Amino acid sequence: MTTDTSAVTVSVATEGQDTLQKFIFDNAAVRGQFIDVSHTWQEVVSRHAYPLAVKKVLGEMVAAAALLSANLKFNGSIIMQIHGDGPVRLMVVECDSELRLRATAKLDPDAAIVDGATVPQLLNATGKGRFIITLDPADKVPGQQPYQGIVPLDGDDMATVIENYMLRSEQLDTRLWLATDDSTSRGLLLQKLPHHGGKAEATPVSEEDALETWNRAVMLASTLKEEEILATDIDTLMQRLFWEETIRVFDPLHPSFHCTCTREKVGNMLKMLGEEEVNSTLEEIGHVGVNCDFCGQHYDFDKVDCAQLFVTNAPAEVLIPPASSIN
């Protein structure tokens, strides 16, 4: 369902749920999305004691992953990763086609991270950081590999990193405004779509008019301050920014926290490590314990469990190993 409105007044927030609100500008090739993913973000931070600067970047990645995923038309997951060369070695956010999210970060054990540290300071200290987006279909045919785009880590903040990726890899003008603190993660995405000359539109619009709408939307959104995004709900932000615009608002979507780890996947990960390494751990402490990086779930394998792993013919395939520690 869609709603046409010029003075945007829609009630999209649902108590206890996160919200992603899509909208498009009428007669212009511009689409947008607001997101409030605070409940999901609270689930993430409740499981990890990250420094403030790390939480800011990871929380912005959570919002951004859902915003990008909502525009994909395929059954599968988008996996957003940063491989860093600073005090933060890895950040991962995964979002599936139902907007179910999980996230984690790995820090250098000796990392000393100050509040206010930027993306380059955290993840690109020597210029070797990499930003990766993987599209992993849930219904892959035999032999099909996930699509993966890898670019240098280009930008001083998460919004700029993603904007540069989208322009470089997808040739799509994208602007993002992201804000995160300990309890809140929100954002706004605007995209300028290819212009088709108004042939499919009720009222034809010129390329110049479409560009003017895009520039005006970006200008309005650029008035947002981080504090305003954190303190203001989606309804109010839409009304405040676009009350003079004619936009079409779609039914809201509801992202949520969900971890896909299972005992079977952890077993496959142990098989990938190899029988020799698993047996070495068994000889040392008598069992193998694995904690999921994303949700903290603990899985324990005794000698019998481990023996069974290496006598089956089940494939050992895991896109992102869920283990944060093995002991």
Basic shape: elongated
Oligomer: single chain
**Secondary-structure element order, N to C:** EEEHHEEEHEEHEEHHHEEHHEEHE
Radius of gyration from the alpha-carbon trace, in angstroms? 22 Å
- Portion of residues in beta strands equals 25-35%
Helical content class: 25-40%
Tell me the number of helical segments per DSSP (H or I, 4 or more residues long).
10
What does this structure look like?
The chain has helices spanning 38-45, 52-69, 119-123, 158-170, 207-221, 226-231, 234-242, 263-273, 275-285, 303-309; strands at residues 2-5, 19-25, 30-36, 76-83, 88-96, 100-107, 130-137, 147-152, 173-180, 185-192, 247-250, 256-257, 288-292, 298-301, 323-326. With 327 residues, the protein is of the alpha+beta class. Strands 1-11-2-3-10-9 form a six-stranded antiparallel β-sheet. The chain is elongated and about 70 Å long. The termini are far apart. Mean pLDDT is 87; it is low at 1-13, 197-202 and 314-325.
Quick structural overview:
The protein has 327 residues and is an alpha+beta fold. It has helices spanning 38-45, 52-69, 119-123, 158-170, 207-221, 226-231, 234-242, 263-273, 275-285, 303-309, and strands at 2-5, 19-25, 30-36, 76-83, 88-96, 100-107, 130-137, 147-152, 173-180, 185-192, 247-250, 256-257, 288-292, 298-301, 323-326. 31% of the residues lie in helices and 28% in strands.
